[in-house]
Each structure stands twice: as C-alpha cells, then as structure tokens.
Amino acid sequence: MKITVLGCGALGQVWLSALCRQGHDVQGWLRVPQPFCLVNVIDEDGTAHNHTLPANDPVHLAESELLLVTLKAWQVSGALIPLLPQLHPDCTLLLLHNGMGTQDELPANTLPILQGVTTHAARRDGNTILHVARGITHIGPSSPRGRAMSHLAETLHHALPDVAWHDAIAAANWKKLVVNCVINPLTAIYGCPNGGLTAYPEQIERLCREAAQVMVFEGFHTATDTLLAYVYDVIERTAANHSSMLQDVRAQRHTEIDYITGYLLRRARRHGLHLPENTRLFEHIKQKESEYE
Ligand code: KPL
Q: Is the ipTM of this complex over 0.95?
C-alpha cells in the first residue's frame, strides 16, 4: 500500500519503520522539505531498525492511499491544509494525536477520515527513537466515508499490533481525552512521573467528576467512578512514564493543552457547564507556557 506519514517524530518513526518492514511503499513528510528521512528505531526488545526512506515527494503524496498524521494536535491543521488539494480524492486520513478538535479546523472535504488513539509509547534519545512500550491503537471513522475503511485496521495491525477498529470511536476518544485532562497537566504542574499522581486523589476525583458531567451532556453513558477507574488503570500501567506535557513543559515547547483541557472546556461551555478544577489547570499550564524564555 502507498502511504505517507506526516510528522516524523517519535511515533511517526515507529509507524514508518513498522510499515516499511511490512512491505508498504512509505514516505515521510517533513515540515522542512527533505529528499530523504532517516528512521532509527530501537524496539522495546532492543532490536534496532534503520531505514533511509523517501520524503516530501509530491507524486508519492498524490498517489498515497493513506495519509497517517502523527503530528502534535496544534500542528495538524497548519501542516495538513496545504496538502489537502494534493491528495487523491480516495486517500484516507488517519489522525493520531492526543486531544480532540483538530478536525473542526479543517475545511469541509469529502475524504474518508479516521481518528485514532494509541497507547504505544516512544521517545527520542538523540538521533534514535526508543519504542519504550507496545500498546493498542484504536481507530474508527470520523467522517461519513471513513465508515467503509475498517479493512485498514487489519492492514495496520499486521504492521504494528494491536490495532482495533471501532464503529463508534468517539467514546474511546473521550476516554483518552479524560486520561489526558488528568495526567498531562497534573504531571506537568507537579513535575512527577505518571505514577506520582496517586498522591493527589481529591484533585483527580474533582477532574473526573467534571469530565463525566460533560460526557453525559455529550450523550455518553458514563459516571465519575468509571472514569476514575480508567484513569487509575492508565496511571498504574504508565507509572514510570513522563507524560508528553511534562516533557513539553520541561523543554519549553508548546503543549497540547488547547486540544486536551481546552477542548473539554469548550464543549462544557456549549452545555452551560462550568468546570472550576479543569479551568484552574488550563490556566496554570497557559501561565507556564507564557513564562518560557
Ligand atoms: O498520552 C499520554 C501522554 O503522556 O501524552 C499518557 C497516556 C498520559 C501517557 O503518558
């Protein structure tokens, strides 16, 4: 299958390497155009995979059947909008990032669009990408034509298992959004690994209570306790991780807060809900970003 991966960061390189090893015709697409991209991934079992792959080839892009977008949420619309006119009308877009709301920033189009969330963990170490934990990628349709693309789950699963297809992906997206609303800002504020958050049970409970209220208004069947159990499960499974927001704040990078807590607050406002605890965290992270030198 002909595939372009937009965003060659840690997760993008893990996918490029996995798809290439599976025999797919893949290229990377970088912000600053390059003829090649170097992919160096070390799997969690220590196996190294080095590839030199084509990059930024407009013919490859125009013939791609899948555009896999692994950028940070705040980079998506800026990078994707100029590419949309160059895509084949049947090219499927798969958006794989933390947070929600990027699709609202895209112009109306008729492409099949899929949205996904993943629990694979990868991080950069110099010029190498460490694939530190295998996980599950949940994907599903978020445009009418996306519904006919379930076969892609199988294709992607063969390259980088596990991939699960969900006809109703919104519920999985919201659960991951809640996890990110709790873990990401709190770890960035307290400067601790995910496991350190067990010291803040009251705050976690308030955050989940507020998120549950919004989810119920959005039409999902959930409750504070269900979300709490899910959040604690992720905290436990990723106890040693440094969340992406903690890493962003430490490196003085733009965070994904606008698409995580910011998205939750925007949806809450539409339902006339006020979320004091989430608002406080949102403002705290915005304050931190404004203090970067
Ligand atoms: O998605 C994550 C992130 O760090 O962005 C979690 C699930 C919190 C894992 O660290």
A: yes
